[in-house]
Fold this sequence. Notes:
Distance between the termini: 23 Å
Largest sheet: none
Number of helices: 22
Radius of gyration: 21 Å
Shape: globular
Helix content: 55-70%
Strand content: under 5%
Structural class: mainly alpha
Number of strands: 0
Oligomer: single chain
Order of helices and strands: HHHHHHHHHHHHHHHHHHHHHH
Amino acid sequence: xxxxxxxxxxxxxxxxxxxxxxxxxxxxxxxxxxxxxxxxxxxxxxxxxxxxxxxxxxxxxxxxxxxxxxxxxxxxxxxxxxxxxxxxxxxxxxxxxxxxxxxxxxxxxxxxxxxxxxxxxxxxxxxxxxxxxxxxxxxxxxxxxxxxxxxxxxxxxxxxxxxxxxxxxxxxxxxxxxxxxxxxxxxxxxxxxxxxxxxxxxxxxxxxxxxxxxxxxxxxxxxxxxxxxxxxxxxxxxxxxxxxxxxxxxxxxxxxxxxxxxxxxxxxxxxxxxxxxxxxxxxxxxxxxxxxxxxxxxxxxxxxxxxxxxxxxxxxxxxxxxxxxxxxxxxxxxxxxxxxxxxxxxxxxxxxxxxxxxxxxxxxxxxxxxxxxxxxxxxxxxxxxxxxxxxxxxx
Length: 395
């Protein structure tokens, strides 16, 4: 479940597109001139109340050579007096892919600091480790932080072949607070948990706040046994649930053109009629699910309609595009490369990143984009797009 909060992102630190960052002796964009004292000073500013100062500090750390940055980050995670700095240091540490990171993440699972636990669970979703599974299962019975529990559910969902996980996650689909159940259902859909489909189907058949989540999750799981359920819901479900049903049917590979056209028409209608924000969010979210699942046209539709839009429609579409950026970065880069001018689409994505509060996932996005920049030919579309993202998103 992607979280969001409103912030303003401003900063002018050097990026790969500048002469300094393009120096030929640099490896993957690191700057050998950045010293240990500079890195430590930057780490101290990761918790500064001034957002541009925090952003510039993070960019300095990211550009430091790993032998300089990693020891300083390890020290900060372990002992810095500011809990927020410890959290940001752990996020940045994950971006360096150092072998010591696993042990730090493992110890962070027991941290009283909610933010550190959130990062650790997110890390173990993307780096599944069977030896950690008993701790994840134990945490599922007691972790009740609204920010920590969703990444814990995703970390568990990554172990879908384990019988204990299947039993635990299937049970959590139908019990507990709706907010937490939503996170479980989304995680199961993203990890294509066929074993949970019967329980998710129960939820999909019921009108209520979780119906959309359950419908989309069934589409992501990809079992066409859900089609009769979707057909019945097309006749009975509320209007605001219809975009989720259309997206889910398309995810199953059935009548995709018809259902995507319906989503386009719905999006256009809701943009022109401000009183239909729920419908707008539903259509945007369905297109995001399609794009995250590999449908490039869905991402193109979000860009096409989001770029010229104004709030409140723009915010909903931007958040949908942000979801695509975090869930399927390669697809988004590919779509942006085809834009005659990627600038307006990057600005839309910047709006999303100003709202999103997914630090670990954003750092993964940053790492992917910077790697794409340095691996691409100098005059290529990939490098042009990656540079635009680095400069405008200020990482």
